[in-house]
Model the fold of this input.
Amino acid sequence: MNFVDKLKETVSRGYENASGLLNDAAEKAKELGEKGILEYEIKRLEKEVENLLPVLGSEIYTLYRDKKIKIMNEAEEVQKILDKIQMKEDEIAKKEQELNEKKPE
Done:
């Protein structure tokens, strides 16, 4: 093999290696991009769930307050929260009554 043939072969192998590396890099970038999109979608969906939880709690509390549902004995923590809410609502009602009594007629 002469010098020119060796040079052509070396350049050809270098090109093939570089081409392979570029293809690998492009594939990796695509994979990372897809992962990034999925991670973003997961975070977005988690945030939607997080935003729905207070709405759910409010709806459940309204049903409980209106005596449309009962809390089971196994839900002690829920009952404790409901009791605290009831105490606060009682305090609010008392303060509103005091306020109404102080208003001039």
